[in-house]
Amino acid sequence: MIADDIRQAVLKAVKTAFPEINLKPEDIELEHPTAQEHRDYSTNIALKLKTGHPREVAQKIVVQLQETTSLEASVAGPGFINFTLSPAALMEAAQKIEIAPIGKGKTVVIDYAAPNIARRFGVGHLRSTIIGQALYNIYQSLGYKVIGDNHLGDWGTQFGKLLYMINEKAKGDFTIDDLEKWYVEFHRQSTPQMEAAARFWFKRLEDGDKKARNLWKKCVDVSMEEFNRIFDLLGVKIDFAYGESFYEDKMPAVIMDAQKISKLSDGARVVEIPGIKIPLMLVKSDGATTYATRDLATLKFRKEQWNPDIMIYEVGVDQELHFRQVFAVARQLGYVKQGAILCHTRHGMYRWPSGRFRTREGNTPKLEGILQEAIARAAKLGSQEAAQAVGIGAIKYFDLKHGVQSDIVFDWEKMFELQGDSGPYLQYTFARAQSVLRKSKGKNQKAKITGELTNEELALLRYLYRFPEVVEAAARQYAPNLVCSYLFELAKRYNNFYNNCPILGNDLRLKLTATTADVLKNGLNLLGIEALERM
Ligand code: ARG
Question: Which of 245, 368, 392, 420 has the greatest number of C-beta atoms within 10 Å?
Fold first, then answer.
C-alpha cells in the first residue's frame, strides 16, 4: 500500500534530520486531506514531534524526503506535510489494489442475528443480521479466520409461560403468531397460580420431561421455519446456531467457577462488579439460570473451541449493561484469552417517520412483508430477474450506510433513490461499467498514461487506490458504513467521468472502468450485496 511506503519514507527522513528522536511507523498518522483536491496524503508528524517550530521541522523533513525519494512533499499551514502522488504513481497503485492480510493467524467470532424462538424475527434482528454479515465479510477479506454464531434465544423461563399457554390453548398445531399472542395474553391475565404453573412447566422442561420437550421442540421448529425463510431472502447463512439451549448442561460448571466471586443476595446468586452498580445475576431466587449465565457459558465454550482474538456481539444498544456485566465477569473467570478484544457494537434502532417501531402491540410491520415489498418495488425499477438482488440490496445498503450506533428512520424513497446514496445506484453504476466493458469486447487494456489527464480521470485515480485502507478502517472501527460512503463517492466520480470522457477506444479509460468495476463489485460483496452484470 502507498501509505506504508510513505510512512517508511517519513520515518527515515525524521531519523536523518533528527537522529535523537525515536519513532515507530505507527506514530506517523496519514490522512487524506479533504479540502485540497490536489493533495493525496497529509501528516501532522512535525506538529507532534514538539522539537522546534513545527513549520521548520516540517521543512527539514521535506528537504530530506526530496533528497532521498521521488515523493512530492510540501509544507502547509501550521506545519503539516502534504504529499501529492504523480499520475504514474497513482496508476501503478490502481493496478494492484489488494487488501492486506492483516488478520492472518487471528480468529474472530461474530455473534449475530440471534432471533428469539416463539417471537417474530424483528427489525432489531434484521439490523444484527445485516451488519453482522457485513463485518463477517470484511474481516474475512482481511485474512482473519471468521466464525459466525447465531445465538438463538431458545431457552429461558419464558418457555415455562409458553408451554403453560400452549397446554391451555392449542388444539393441535400452532403458529408463531399464536405463540406471540399467547405470550402477551399470559402477561395480561397472569395470576400467582399461573406464574407457579409456568415455573413448573419450565422445571419439567429442564428435567427433560417428554411432553415439555416435545412442545418446546415444536416452538423451535415453527420459529425456525420462518427464520430460515428470512435468512434465505437475505442470502445469509450463518456458520453455527448453537443457541442458548445448547448451554443448558454447561451452566453448572459456570456457577461452580464463579463460586468464589459470587454471593447470595435475597436468595439469588449474584456477582458484584467494580464500577457497575447493578450486579450480574447468575441464578434467580427460584433457582432458574439467566440469559447472562448462558452468555458466560458461551464465552467459556468459545474459548475452548476457537480461542478467538476478537469477539464481536452485533446486538442492540438496549443490551449495553448486560454485555458490560458479562464481559467483566468473563474476564475475571478467565473465559477470555489474554489481550483478546470483546466488542458490543450497540446498534441503534429503527423508527418510522411517525415514531417507534413497535414490538408487541401489534403495529410492528412483519419483516417478511417489508422484504417482499422491497422486492416488489425493485421489480418496478427494472428486470424481474434482478428484483430480489436489487430489493434486498436496497434494504441492506440503507441499513449499512447509517453509522452502526445511529438510529434509522425507515424511508422507502431514500432506499430506492436512483441518483442518490442507495444500493440501486451503486448496482446501476456497476452494471453501467460492465456494459461499457462488454462493448469494448473485453480487450485486455494496456493502460499507459500519455499526456495530461483530465480532471475526471484524475479524480478517479486519486480515489481508487484507497479501497484497501477503507476496508481496514471499517474492520478496526466495526463500521461497514465507511465502505458505503467510499463506494458512493467512487460511484459519483465514475459517473462524472463516464458523462464527460468518451471511454470506448481509449485504453486508459477502459482500464479505469475495469478497475472501478472491480472495486465496486468487491465492495458491494463485502456489504452482502450482489453486483449485477445487467439491471
Ligand atoms: N436473542 C437475544 C435478543 O434478541 C440476542 C442475543 C445476542 N447474543 C448474545 N450472545 N447474547 O435479545
Answer: 392
Q: Whose CA is nearest to atom 11 of ligand 1?
A: 295
State which of 121, 129, 151 you would mutate to test the pocket of ligand 1, scoring each by most atoms of that ligand within 8 A of its C-beta.
151
Residue 327 has pLDDT above 80, yes or no: yes
pLDDT of 354 reads 76
Ligand 1 in reach of 153 Cβ (< 6 A):
yes
- The predicted model gives 430-440 an average pLDDT of 96
Q: Which of 327, 344, 361 is the last residue of a domain?
A: 344
Name the domain boundary from 287, 313, 344.
344
404 falls within a domain: no
- Among protein residues, the one with the nearest Cα to ligand 1's atom 6 is 114
Say how far apart CA 113 and CA 122 lie, in whole Å.
10
User: Domain residues for 222?
Assistant: 107-344
> Which of 298, 314, 319, 342 has most ligand 1 atoms within 8 Å of its beta carbon, as the pocket-test mutant?
319
* Ligand 1 atom at minimal distance to the Cα of residue 116: 1
CA distance 46 to 73: 13
In the structure grid, which three cell numbers stand for residue 36, read together? 485540497
What DSSP state is assigned to residue 72? Answer: E
Residue closest by Cα to atom 9 of ligand 1? 151
Are residue 74 and residue 114 in the same domain, yes or no? no
Angle at 506 between CA 493 and CA 444, to 5 degrees: 100
Question: What are the tens digits of pLDDT across the range 99-116?
Answer: 999 999 999 999 999 999
pLDDT of residue 364: 61
- How many angstroms separate the alpha carbon of residue 118 from the centre of ligand 1? 14
pLDDT category at 2 given cuts 50, 70, 90 is confident
Element containing residue 212 per DSSP (H, E): helix 210-234
126 and 272 inside one domain: yes
Asked if residue 369 belongs to a domain, the reply is: no
